Amino acid sequence: MREDELIIDIEADTDEPNEHPTKTLVFVSTFDPSSRVEVIPMEGQTVRQAAEVSGLTARDGSAWTVYDSLGVEISHMPSFDMIGDVLYVGPAAVSAGDNQPANPEGGVE
Amino acid sequence: MGKKYAKKGVKKGKSPKDAHLQKVTVPRSIVQQAMDFTAPRGRLEMGGLLVGHIGSEGEVNVVSGFFPEQIRASPGYCEFDGSWVAIAASACDHANTASTSGSSPDLRVVGWIHTHPDLGLFLSSIDISTYTSLRGMSPDSKFIAIVVDPLRGEDGVFPSEHMPNHYTRASGNSELSEEMAEKYNHFLDRIQEVRAAKGSEKLPAVLPGDLRLERILRGDPDDSHIAFKRGFQKLKSRHWELEDQVSEMRLEISQLRSSMSEISAIRRRLDEFLDSRRRNYSLLSRLIG
Questions:
Q1: Nearest CA in chain A to B49
Q2: Which residue of A has its CA nearest to B146?
Q3: For residues B33, B38, B42 and B47, what is the CA-based torsion angle, rounded to 10 degrees?
Q4: Do B121 and A109 touch (CB under 8 A)?
Q5: Which of B13, B36, B49, B211 could form an SS bridge with B228, CB 3.0 to 4.6 Å?
Q6: Which structural domain, as residue segments, surrounds residue B236?
Q7: Do B259 and B191 belong to one domain?
Q8: What is the DSSP letter of B111?
Q9: Residue B14 placed within a domain
Q10: Same domain for B139 and B268?
Q11: pLDDT tens digits, residue range B40-61?
């Protein structure tokens, strides 16, 4: 069977939609867009609170937040307002610095 | 049997540190573009993101990237806003869905690049902390770090945050199928749209890697080359300024020399005068005495 082949089942009782109506927030990892977690929002919950259950937040306790697809931070927004949107969970900032090596032993492979 | 035991004896096990090492492919073009763009900034550090895909053997393939505006930048520190990671991820999403090919690997943020101008190649304690945090946020931990020293012309690909002095040099080229090149072009198109909307000061440099010529033909600015050219002109202008200063200093030195020779002549005359006064005084003393 080809993927684009249309099958009509004349014995089917009802026409069931292929997709359920979206009532979830879709959280995506900023480091792997294929890692997507749908979360059903709860009354009075912020986007950040909903994202906490997604498992996509920083594992080491470092600062993270939630952005929309334009990079606007929306973690403080009510989660109900963002239903159906794709939201990205990522770091709050990316820093580098300190002009000293962490370990003085060195070497190029 | 004996042979079997002997073989077992020489078999190398992976150390816990080795287990964190990732297979990585980074084309030279990416690090060269990063160095060309950041060298004119002098000792100011700069950080950016790397975009690529995971190959069939689980290797991290870096293909392109960009340097966003820095929130803070000094000779020992740089920081950019995390929203750029979301923008990059969203552009990857766009490219993955816009592409007609379903079987090719997805584009994603695969690494982080930052500069160590005239500091050499290593990961500092802040770098390790950032690397650990970013790699920890990657669901499969496929994430690498690159450090470039644009003033010494050095680059290092760090495959693990646990080995801050273990790096390899970027080498080779990106080998992209037509479908993958199409995906990367979708990604770069979206990034250029973001730049058009936000302004070049917010997204000063896009690193197209080996797709550079194709992107120039499509109308993208050649950021690294432009920055390098501007840097060269700035250096040339600074060179002429210094030449002028040296000429002025030479003139001042020759004036000082002539003043010094005048002073020496005056001093000689004064010494002669004092000598003659001394002689006269001693003659007078003898006559009175």
A1: A94
A2: A96
A3: -140
A4: no
A5: B36
A6: 232-289
A7: no
A8: E
A9: no
A10: no
A11: 989 999 999 999 999 999 999 9
Are both B137 and B237 inside the same structural domain? no
Look up the pTM and report it. 0.78
Question: Do B89 and A28 count as a contact with CB atoms less than 8 A apart?
Answer: yes
A-chain residues within 8 Å CB-CB of B129?
62
The CATH number that applies at residue B174 is 3.40.140.10
Better pLDDT: B133 or B13:
B133
pLDDT at B12: 40
Write the pLDDT tens digit of every residue in B158-200. Answer: 999 999 999 999 998 888 999 999 999 999 999 999 999 999 9
Contact A102 B128 (CB under 8 A): yes
The CATH-assigned architecture of domain A25-91 is: Roll (3.10)
Among candidate residues A48, A92, A96, A101, the one with its CA nearest the CA of residue B167: A101
State the amino acid at position A38 in one-letter form. E
- Distance (Å) from the alpha carbon of B63 to chain A's nearest alpha carbon: 15
Of B28, B85, B82, give the one whose Cα is nearest residue B51: B85
If asked whether residues B26 and B153 sit together in one domain, one would say yes
**B150 lies in some domain:** yes
Distance CA B96, CA B79 (A): 28
Q: Is A20 helix (H, G, I), strand (E, B) or coil?
A: coil
Alpha helix stretches (DSSP H) within chain A: 47-52
The verdict on B56 and B110 lying in the same domain is yes
Q: pLDDT tens digits, residue range A63-99?
A: 999 999 999 999 999 999 999 889 999 999 999 987 7
Is B248 a member of any domain? yes
**Residue A105 binned pLDDT confidence (cut-offs 50, 70, 90):** low
What whole-number distance in Å separates Cα of residue B65 and Cα of residue B88? 9
pLDDT at B122 over 90: yes
Among A33, A63, A101, beta carbon nearest to B89: A33
Rounded-to-integer distance, Cα B61 and Cα B53, Å = 5
Instruction: Choose among B126, B132, B143: nearest Cβ to A96.
Output: B126
Residues in Cβ contact with B116 at an 8 Å cutoff, skipping those fewer than 6 apart: A99, B45, B122, B147, B148, B149
Whether B281 is in a domain gets the answer yes
Q: pLDDT > 90: what percent of chain B? A: 79
Q: How many domains does chain B have?
A: 2
What tokens appear for A2 in the block?
A: 């080809």
Read off the pLDDT of residues A27-69 as tens digits, 9 standing for 90 and up.
999 999 889 999 999 889 999 999 998 888 887 888 999 999 9
